[in-house]
TrEMBL record, chain A:
The keyword Signal does not apply. SUPFAM superfamilies: FAD/NAD(P)-binding domain. Residues 153-263 form the FAD/NAD(P)-binding domain. Keywords: FAD, Flavoprotein, Oxidoreductase. Pfam families: GIDA, Pyr_redox_2. The keyword Oxidoreductase applies. This is Glucose inhibited division protein A. Residues 5-40 form the MnmG N-terminal domain.
TrEMBL record, chain B:
Pfam families: DAO, Fer2_BFD. Residues 7-355 form the FAD dependent oxidoreductase domain. It comes from Pseudogracilibacillus auburnensis. PANTHER family: GLYCEROL 3-PHOSPHATE OXIDASE (PTHR42720:SF1), GLYCEROL-3-PHOSPHATE DEHYDROGENASE (PTHR42720). Residues 388-442 form the BFD-like [2Fe-2S]-binding domain. It comes from the Bacteria. InterPro entries: BFD-like_2Fe2S-bd_dom, BFD-like_2Fe2S-bd_dom_sf, FAD-dep_OxRdtase, FAD/NAD-bd_sf, G3P_Oxidase/Oxidoreductase. This is Glycerol-3-phosphate dehydrogenase.
């Protein structure tokens, strides 16, 4: 299989790249994503009111005539030699595919950094999770708990608080600007958390059976280790301000890069350059 | 089968209990193992350094040293037969000044000799060549070539799996509430109300082995919990061996060890406590680990950690392993007080226990068709391995379903973790746990609500979007 452009990751950035590709008239485009739906790890939140623009973007994306694969994860990437094509291995439900691509745009995003990455003391009971996991549970007909504390530090976490409240869950929100997660209690299941006031170091505690917490990001660049694409010491893809990676004809945008968010203008400009030069 | 009288029931599904079950499964016996938690390997066996110790520093002539010595000869076959990931990387005890060198020369070299463990002095240059990340202050190290690292999850599970393949019964998820001594044996009552009759009991209940012992009125030993906190990192540390400190009079110190399934472990602390289950980590504990480790490897403080955890070691009032019949009832054999070398000594402990059982009258007749090897459960060349489930660790769907089809299928997320490595990566399962729940559900392994690991560790409640 051979494509003009392969887009790795169909989160909001990858979706924007696909829409731009259509505007530019590209025909042979493949977009692959690990999740079972498009729109990123937190795709089910996009139905909420706070995400009007994103919702429209997703609607337009669904109408694109491109090949779109869900449950499709890139496990290997081999950059082109000379004038050859790049090659990627994509693992799917029905097998592993070796795909050739003239150009690749990496939008594989980042995963939420969980409690465990922050050396927060206490026990490790069930019930402590990131927004992504909470959404995954909601999608499957579960609730994360009856008494949930949400650590609010993003549009995602705030929307999730609302969503849980609407489901009748008792939600306590903790504002990340004011509080740091301090300690976790409970043997098999979560019983209590402590937070520390960032202004005066005072400890406050909350009884709860679930804590939704994440802080910071883990770039989803696992498949790039050992390739020619240079990563920084935290494994984010090194790019210039226009998304150029260390390999020709491979761009990277969004949270998987060392530039975090990429504006739609930058995506448009960089993609035009990428396809005009060839 | 419900009312059949067992020959032997092993209480405790840690590495010691399952090793004993495996050994007994090679004989014509009707045997069972009782584990309170929903899976094997839920206590000290899951939260340790994963090092196979030689016993170079064990008290000479102790039962612990004896079991470690016996185990050394058994491990090579076991790792192969049971397919236990195992790396014979060796360990070095690093001296950072002349005083530490002297302690090694005066104490550890003679101790190793007494336990028949081969050790040699490694000079500064060689230490740094093999382990460039070690501090420049190193003056040399004691090299213990026989030390190795292995996967304690696989070890524990594989013991249980082989036993099950050989006909042993595993009773998971319900602990012992009562033991009654009968005319010719015992009657055990479980939390779920089930009654089990058996002629012999092996008490391998870890930190709870004193509780189990007291159920028949034997209070000959007490177990004190000792917590050990660890830090797991996936940073690249330029070492090829286990890096040990020279212990001081006050503390055994903290080590840095490669992990067979990736990354490095720093720890453990040694904190005596009352609570047998308090495995919380603390700022002070983590600081103690970092403080200890940075003396050996500068810069550890700046490493990102993907997880911190603590295990509870079973420290015995007698100061040594307790492997003997109870004085109250000879048909009740203790395998208790297995302080911190349980994984390393498990093959030897199983041999000792079998001999003790034979001494008190159990007939051990070899089962002719007993298997010694875990069969290859899946063909790795299989073309369609399914989609990627665990993104951080690139674990496929078929790696998970193969585990679910094994002789001891997991029913919890942590059970899947210990069998496949899924959820062990940086996101700690937050991205793939919902997908794993789907698969467990498909295999009808979830009772009502999905569990993380322990009894009652429900991950979620009913009532979401669907």
């Amino acid at each position: 299989m051979k494509y003009e452009l392969v887009i790795i990751g169909a989160g909001l950035t990858g979706v924007e790249v696909a829409l731009q590709a259509k505007k530019m008239g590209l025909e042979s485009v493949l977009i692959v994503d690990y999740n079972d739906q498009f729109g990123g790890f937190n795709h089910s939140l996009l139905a909420e009111d706070a995400f009007e623009e994103e919702k429209n973007r997703m609607k337009k994306f669904k109408e694109l005539p491109y090949e779109k694969w869900t449950n499709a994860t890139v496990t290997g990437l081999f950059e082109a030699f000379g004038d050859g094509e790049h090659e990627i291995n994509v693992q799917t439900k029905t097998g592993t595919f070796d795909i050739e691509a003239k150009k690749i745009i990496i939008c594989s995003g980042a995963l939420e950094k969980p409690r465990e990455a922050h050396k927060i003391g206490g026990t490790r009971p069930a019930g402590v999770m990131t927004p992504t996991m909470a959404l995954g549970l909601l999608d499957r007909g579960f609730l994360p708990g009856n008494q949930v504390v949400v650590y609010e530090n993003s549009k995602t976490s705030r929307a999730l608080s609302k969503l849980l409240e609407n489901k009748g869950v008792q939600v306590t929100t903790v504002e990340a600007n004011d509080y740091a997660l301090h300690k976790v209690y409970g043997k098999s299941s979560l019983e209590k958390i402590e937070v520390k006031d960032k202004n005066n170091d005072e400890i406050e505690s909350f009884q709860c059976d679930s804590l939704i917490f994440s802080e910071g990001f883990i770039p989803s660049t696992f498949y790039l280790k050992g390739t020619g694409i240079e990563l920084n010491d935290k494994q984010f893809i090194l790019t210039d301000s226009e998304g150029k990676t260390s390999v020709d004809n491979i761009l990277a945008f969004g949270y998987c890069t060392d530039h975090n968010e990429t504006s739609n203008e930058t995506i448009e400009k960089s993609m035009k350059q990428l396809f005009i030069q060839s | 089968m419900q009312n059949e009288i067992k020959d032997v029931v092993v209480i405790g599904g840690g590495v010691v209990g399952t090793a004993i079950l495996r050994k007994l499964s090679l004989y014509n016996l009707s045997i069972a193992l009782i584990e309170k938690q929903p899976d094997v390997c839920e206590g000290a066996s899951k939260a340790n350094s994963g090092i196979i110790h030689t016993g170079f520093d064990a008290p000479p002539n102790s039962l612990e040293a004896k079991c470690l010595i016996r185990s050394r000869d058994l491990w090579p076959d076991y790792t192969e037969q049971l397919k236990i990931p195992y790396i014979p990387c060796g360990a070095i005890m690093v001296a950072t000044d002349e005083d530490e060198k002297e302690i090694i020369e005066k104490k550890y070299i003679p101790n190793a000799k007494a336990n028949e463990v081969e050790v040699e002095w490694m000079d500064r240059q060689e230490v740094l060549e093999m382990n460039p990340a070690v501090t420049d202050n190193v003056v040399g190290a004691l090299s213990i070539l026989g030390e190795a690292i292995c996967d304690p999850f696989t070890a524990t599970r594989a013991y249980a799996e082989l036993a099950v393949i050989n006909g042993a019964e595993l009773l998971l998820g319900s602990g012992v509430t009562k033991i009654t001594v009968t005319d010719d044996g015992f009657e055990i009552i479980l939390e779920n109300g089930r009654e089990i009759k058996t002629n012999y009991i092996v008490n391998a209940a870890g930190v709870y082995s004193d509780h189990i012992s007291r159920m028949i009125g034997d209070d000959s030993f007490t177990i004190s919990p000792r917590k050990g906190q660890f830090i797991l990192t996936e940073e690249e540390i330029d070492i090829s061996q286990v890096i040990l400190p020279v212990p001081t009079a006050k503390s055994k110190g903290t080590l840095i060890s490669p992990v067979v399934f990736g990354g490095f472990l720093l720890g453990p602390t040694a904190e005596d406590q009352e609570d047998k289950e308090d495995n919380s980590t603390s700022e002070e504990g983590i600081e103690q680990v970092l403080h200890g480790c940075e003396k050996l490897i500068p810069g550890v403080r700046d490493y990102d950690s993907i997880r911190q955890f603590a295990g509870i070691r079973a420290v015995c009032s007698t100061g040594d392993y307790v492997i003997r019949p109870s004085e109250i009832n000879k048909q009740f054999i203790h395998a208790a007080g297995i302080r911190s070398t349980g994984l390393s000594a498990s093959p030897g402990i199983a041999e000792e226990v079998a001999e003790q059982l034979e001494l008190v009258g159990l007939a051990l007749n070899k089962k002719e068709d007993a298997k010694l090897e875990i069969p290859n459960l899946f063909d790795e060349s299989e073309e369609n391995v399914g989609e990627i489930i665990c993104l951080c660790r690139t674990i496929t769907r078929s790696e998970i379903t193969n585990a679910l089809e094994g002789p001891v299928p997991p029913t919890t997320i942590d059970g899947v973790k210990r069998r496949t490595g899924a959820t062990l990566g940086e996101c700690q399962g937050n991205c793939c746990i919902p997908k794993i729940i789907d698969i467990l559900d498909e295999y009808k392994l979830i009772d009502e609500l999905p569990l993380k690991g322990l009894q009652n560790s429900t991950i979620a409640l009913k009532g979401g979007n669907q």
